[in-house]
Amino acid sequence: MTSNKPNVFLHYTQEELDQAYDQTAWAPNFAAVAAANLERSAAVRARRPHEVASYGDSADETLEIVPAQSQGLPVVLFVHGGRWMAQPHNAFIFAAETFVGCGAHFVAARFACLAPVPGAVGMPDMVQQLRRAVQWLHRHAGRFGGDPQQIHLVGHSSGAHLASVLLTTRWADHGLPDKVFKTGSCISGMYDLRPVLLSARSSYVKLSAAQEDDFSALRHLDRLHCPVLVSYGDRESPEFQRHARDFAAAMATAGHPHRLVRLADSNHFEGVASLHDPKSPLSQLLLRHMGLATGHP
């Protein structure tokens, strides 16, 4: 039966678009994956030395650092997802074992997040905090043995969106070299905010037209200064798969170095969760993309 409901974006009705941005509807094992991430993060903290550093004045502005054992090594900066909303369990260092074991320091960014109803924190605040995190890391990575010339940025979901905004930031305006990142990796993200703001997420994601444009990385590829790996799972919502393909296609048109990877048998949460295993397809792809050793002791 043909629906009489109007399309609000591409072929989506409002109900369909809302569902397309609710990844838990496409991942029946979401709770189990989240619980495993929490357990693995706790195990990393139990096994590995780690510290928390402040990069700003607020309690939200911290970096959890899992250092490698040597000096002058690359730094992997991870930006978590979660619909731009708070993730109180801090279960995002489960990937540290993979990167530390292959010769890099692992740093997980903490930052203020949006509330289910619009509040004091907006997306511009999140972006500004993360820019301060990058500034701090570039200036102070040597404190824990990191090489500020080798910062590799990784983000997942809304964190991949935020990572794409960092990748397309004019860093000279913030006192850093334009080539502040060695590589970028965007896992299951969104790179054009127009459809997001047409979905149910518009109830708490509030942006002006100028902010929507500025935070839509797909529109600012002239600001990219490093190779970008874009990945998505073949069991994610078709809309998130489209975001990845469109971002990669735009980079191809612009002649920017990139790689698009479709992860087989992976939903929105399984791909990034596989980073705990250095032998997983996504771990191996990211390690090669960063120029790190793909073996593991």
Give your account of this protein's structure.
The strands form two sheets. Strands 3-4-6-5-7-8-9-10 form an eight-stranded mixed sheet, with helices on both faces. The protein is an alpha/beta fold. The protein is globular. The N and C termini lie far apart (57 Å). It contains ten helices and ten strands. The protein has a single domain, classed as Rossmann fold. The longest helix has 18 residues, at 30-47.
Strand and helix map with partners:
Elements: E1 7-9, E2 12-13, H1 14-20, H2 30-47, E3 51-54, E4 62-66, E5 73-79, H3 96-101, E6 105-110, H4 123-140, E7 146-156, H5 158-167, E8 183-187, H6 194-198, H7 209-214, E9 228-233, H8 238-254, E10 258-263, H9 270-273, H10 281-290
Parallel strand pairs: 5-6, 5-7, 7-8, 8-9, 9-10
Antiparallel strand pairs: 1-2, 3-4, 4-6
Q: Structural class given helices, strands, pairing? A: alpha/beta
Q: CATH homologous superfamily name?
A: Alpha/Beta hydrolase fold, catalytic domain
Strand content: 15-25%
Order of neighbouring strands in the sheet with most strands: 3-4-6-5-7-8-9-10
Query: In terms of per-residue confidence, which ranges show pLDDT below 50 for 5 or more consecutive residues?
Result: none
Number of DSSP strands?
A: 10
Helix content: 25-40%
The CATH architecture comes to 3-Layer(aba) Sandwich
Q: Characterize the biggest β-sheet.
A: 8 strands, mixed
Q: How many domain units? A: 1
The average pLDDT score comes to 96
Radius of gyration: 18 Å
Overall shape: it is: globular
Q: Termini distance?
A: 57 Å
